[in-house]
Specification:
4-stranded mixed β-sheet, 2,3-Dihydroxybiphenyl 1,2-Dioxygenase, domain 1, globular, 2 helices
Length: 135
C-alpha cells in the first residue's frame, strides 16, 4: 500500500511496559544502577512509573502478585534497546554494580551487545550496530 494517505503514517518508537511487584523500587534501580531518570509515578501508592534515558522510555505497572513472569524462552530477551556507545555503557554499568550477564560481545548479526538482568529478573539487551566504531 503506497497511497498518499500512507505518507502521513510514521512509527516513532516502541515503549516496553513491564509488570513488576514494586514500581518505586524498580524505577529507583533503573535510576541508580542503569542510569535512567525517573519521569514520574502515578497513583497512591504508585501503581505506574516511567523511566527514560535519552530517547528511550520504559513503563512499569504494579503486579497483583509478587512473582514477575516474563514468558521468555531460554536465551531470549525481555527488551532490546538500540544504543550507541555500548562499551562505555558496559563500563558505566559495571561501576554501578549492574548484573551483567554477557558482553559486550559481537554477534553474527552484526550487533555488539551487552546483556543485563534487572532487579526483577528481566533481561535487557543493549545493542549497537557494529558498523559504528566502538566508544
Amino acid at each position: 500500500m503506497n497511497s498518499d494517505a500512507d505518507k502521513t503514517i510514521r512509527f516513532e518508537g516502541a515503549v516496553p511496559q513491564f509488570t513488576v511487584p514494586d514500581v518505586v523500587q524498580t524505577a529507583e534501580y533503573y535510576r541508580d544502577v542503569l542510569g535512567f531518570q525517573i519521569a514520574g509515578y502515578w497513583g497512591t501508592p504508585p501503581v505506574f512509573a516511567i523511566v527514560r534515558r535519552d530517547k528511550v522510555e520504559l513503563f512499569f505497572n504494579r503486579a497483583d502478585q509478587s512473582e514477575v513472569r516474563t514468558g521468555r524462552a531460554r536465551g531470549a530477551y525481555d527488551a532490546y534497546l538500540r544504543i550507541i556507545g555500548v562499551e562505555a555503557l558496559a563500563a558505566e554499568l559495571r561501576a554501578l554494580g549492574a548484573d551483567i550477564l554477557e558482553g559486550p560481545v559481537i554477534r553474527v548479526y552484526e550487533q555488539r551487545e551487552l546483556v543485563v538482568r534487572d532487579c526483577n529478573g528481566l533481561i535487557l539487551t543493549f545493542g549497537e550496530d557494529t558498523s559504528r566504531p566502538a566508544n
